[in-house]
Amino acid sequence: MLGWKVFLVLWLLVTASLGASIPFLKPSFLNLKEDLEDARKEGKYLFIMFHQEGCPFCDRMRRVTFQDKAVGDYFTKHFYMVEVDIRGSNELVDVDGKKMTEKEFARKHDVRLTPVFMFYDQEGKVIAKIPGYIEPRDFLILGRWIVEGHYKNKSFITFLKENRR
């Protein structure tokens, strides 16, 4: 009887963690040109989360940072996120309309490790590529750096230092 209860608790924990949704994750057919247009129509920015299977820092972003209420609220209001597997073989259409695999797209943007977050402006120009796990507080600052236009005249590191309080 005890074994059954332990199994049930473990099953509930696993399914709860897998079922945690990311509100700003855009259901995508990996057509970034269309995704950018959808984001633009809603006044949002498009960003890519490059990931790979087995990446503990990608999983931590999903479990911790993306589940933070303030991050969820802010990023849902201002961003669309699309995930791209750096080892993936699915066809992808870049913002310029060129077709390639996810792996080729990652190579094109010199992404070899994960996670990496690549942000586009409203015209489809890459405005930032930020690597690594980012705590919720710093991810919010990153979002503000993009949305408020500080990326045009200030590095993210400078903006982060000024806004960490």
TrEMBL record:
Highest taxon, organism lineage: Bacteria
Thioredoxin domain segment(s): 16-152
UniProt xrefs under PROSITE patterns: THIOREDOXIN_2 (PS51352)
Protein name: Thioredoxin-related protein
Short name of any one Pfam family annotated for the protein: Thioredoxin_2
